[in-house]
């Protein structure tokens, strides 16, 4: 069956902004002076020059007691213990895998923090080290939980539960794609992603087919309907 | 140098209708791509630049090449420097301040003029390209296409730095607008 193709002019582009809130906090941009008093400590996103505290990113100021930091709206993933992440294996090393989790540094998955196939709990032997590539190889997609954060900010992962491990993208593929497209629609309109917003977007998207969800009008429609339902939730 | 005289007409207009200290029109937009960490589109006159930032991420291939506190950005046109600055800000990468680049030249052997277009560059005299940190006034890069008399350097340089400050104003406005728009949509919630 021939697929329908949508082509449009750049001038007919859909405006994806759903910014409704007119009040906004003070925005700092790189090089801007935050304060000239030197009783404050510099946090992330700031630096000191000539006795003044200046911002080094574009974002909003956050203050905890004397610590001032500027948080950019967008940055790489900063993991915290307990987060569930999806990552891709980039390297197989001795006793550990390197995993790309879209953070600044690659994360580590130690051989000792995976459940070996077969489910037995025992010491990891030399044979296990040789078998590592059979279990997870470069390019595999895994889901895992953050076990600890190293001092340089890189993450140590574990998959010691049946919920984690290699992602098998065969079953419910349409549902997965639909959720993916819903998330795309929400992010295109810069809406927050959390369980409720994704659930609402999923429900509102059911009137479209999965492929139709990639059309900009449909995406904005889904985002707007979701936004409205979220607003209703806040009122109630 | 006789052709040089025509760069600014008697009533003070240049070939494209600008005055000596006017920039070309700058239009810019942040976050034009979704795949990279940061991206920007910038139009300066007829020069159109798209910039994308991937990273920061782990060094791939050979750890010895890793440099921890600096990065190198190669640019051909001054507008590329401006676009790269915007893309870095969009990616949330800490920088000391805006890096802006601007050109300046000498018209009629006397009048310094700002932001040289391609046409003026071909028929005109020496072009001074300056990339600077406009707030602290530090010069990052300075380049000249031909020689001219040292007496002219200071006023041409001042003009170029003024251009950098003007460009910084425009970029800053675009960044604030973008941050406000995105922030209002996300409800200023934590994204990290």
From TrEMBL, chain A:
Regions that span the bilayer:
none
Q: Which SUPFAM superfamilies match?
A: Eukaryotic type KH-domain (KH-domain type I), Nucleic acid-binding proteins, Ribosomal L27 protein-like
List the subcellular locations: Nucleus
Q: Which GO terms describe its biological process?
A: CUT catabolic process; exonucleolytic trimming to generate mature 3'-end of 5.8S rRNA from tricistronic rRNA transcript (SSU-rRNA, 5.8S rRNA, LSU-rRNA); nuclear polyadenylation-dependent rRNA catabolic process; poly(A)-dependent snoRNA 3'-end processing; TRAMP-dependent tRNA surveillance pathway; U4 snRNA 3'-end processing
Give the domain of life.
Answer: Eukaryota
Molecular function GO terms recorded: RNA binding
Gene Ontology CC annotation, any one? nuclear exosome (RNase complex)
Q: Which InterPro entries does the entry link to?
A: Exosome_cplx_N_dom, Exosome_RNA_bind1/RRP40/RRP4, KH_dom_type_1_sf, NA-bd_OB-fold, S1_domain, S1_RRP4
Q: Which residue intervals define the domain S1 motif in the entry?
A: 82-160
For the keyword Nuclease, the answer is no
Pfam families tied to this protein: ECR1_N, S1_RRP4
Keywords per UniProt: Exosome, Nucleus, RNA-binding, rRNA processing
- Family classification: Belongs to the RRP4 family.
**Official protein name in the record:** S1 motif domain-containing protein
Q: Which organism is it from?
A: Rhamnusium bicolor
TrEMBL record, chain B:
Q: Which SUPFAM superfamilies match?
A: Ribonuclease PH domain 2-like, Ribosomal protein S5 domain 2-like
InterPro entries per the UniProt record, alphabetical? ExoRNase_PH_dom1 (IPR001247), ExoRNase_PH_dom2 (IPR015847), ExoRNase_PH_dom2_sf (IPR036345), PNPase/RNase_PH_dom_sf (IPR027408), Ribosomal_Su5_D2-typ_SF (IPR020568), RNase_PH (IPR050080)
> For this UniProt entry, what's an example GO CC term?
nucleolus
Question: Which parts of the sequence belong to the Exoribonuclease phosphorolytic domain?
Answer: 22-76, 98-162
Q: Give GO terms for biological process.
A: nuclear mRNA surveillance; poly(A)-dependent snoRNA 3'-end processing; rRNA catabolic process; U4 snRNA 3'-end processing
Q: What's one GO MF term for it?
A: RNA binding
Q: Which family does it belong to?
A: Belongs to the RNase PH family.
Checking PANTHER family in the record gives: EXOSOME COMPLEX COMPONENT, EXOSOME COMPLEX COMPONENT RRP41
Q: What is this protein called?
A: Uncharacterized protein
């Amino acid at each position: 069956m021939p697929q329908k193709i949508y082509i449009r002019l750049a001038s007919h582009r859909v405006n994806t902004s759903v910014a409704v809130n007119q009040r906004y906090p003070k925005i700092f941009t790189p090089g801007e002076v935050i304060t000239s008093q030197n009783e404050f400590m510099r946090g992330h996103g700031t630096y000191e020059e000539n006795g003044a505290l200046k911002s080094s990113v574009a974002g909003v100021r956050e203050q905890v007691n004397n610590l001032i930091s500027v948080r950019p709206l967008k940055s790489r993933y900063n993991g915290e213990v307990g987060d569930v992440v999806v990552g891709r294996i980039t390297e197989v090393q001795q006793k550990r895998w390197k995993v790309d989790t879209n953070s600044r540094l690659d994360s580590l998955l130690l051989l000792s923090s995976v459940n070996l196939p077969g489910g037995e709990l025992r010491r990891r032997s030399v044979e296990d080290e040789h078998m590592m590539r059979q279990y997870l190889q470069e390019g595999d997609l895994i889901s895992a939980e953050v076990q600890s954060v190293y001092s340089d900010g890189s993450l140590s992962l574990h998959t010691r539960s049946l919920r984690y491990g290699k992602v098998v993208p065969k079953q419910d593929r349409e549902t997965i794609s639909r959720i993916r497209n819903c998330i795309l629609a929400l992010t295109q309109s810069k809406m927050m992603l959390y369980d409720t917003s994704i659930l609402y977007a999923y429900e509102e998207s059911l009137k479209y087919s999965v492929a139709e969800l990639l059309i900009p009008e449909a995406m904005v429609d889904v985002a707007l309907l979701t936004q409205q339902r979220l607003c209703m939730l806040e009122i109630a | 140098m006789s052709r040089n005289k025509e760069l600014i007409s008697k009533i003070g207009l240049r070939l494209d209708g600008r005055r000596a200290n006017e920039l070309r029109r700058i239009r810019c937009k942040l976050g034009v791509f979704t795949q990279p960490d940061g991206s920007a589109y910038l139009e300066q006159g007829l020069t159109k630049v798209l910039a994308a930032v991937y990273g920061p991420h782990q060094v791939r291939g050979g750890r010895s090449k890793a440099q921890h506190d600096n990065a190198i950005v190669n640019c051909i046109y001054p507008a590329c420097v401006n676009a790269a600055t915007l893309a870095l800000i969009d990616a949330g990468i800490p920088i000391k301040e805006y890096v802006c680049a601007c050109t300046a030249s000498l018209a009629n052997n006397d009048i310094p003029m700002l932001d040289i277009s391609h046409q003026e560059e071909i028929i005109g005299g020496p072009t001074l390209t300056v990339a600077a940190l406009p707030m602290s006034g530090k010069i990052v890069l300075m380049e000249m296409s031909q020689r001219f008399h040292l007496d002219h350097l200071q006023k041409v340089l001042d003009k170029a730095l003024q251009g950098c400050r003007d460009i910084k104003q425009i970029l800053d406005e675009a960044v604030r607008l973008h941050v406000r728009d995105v922030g209002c949509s996300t409800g200023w919630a934590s994204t990290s």
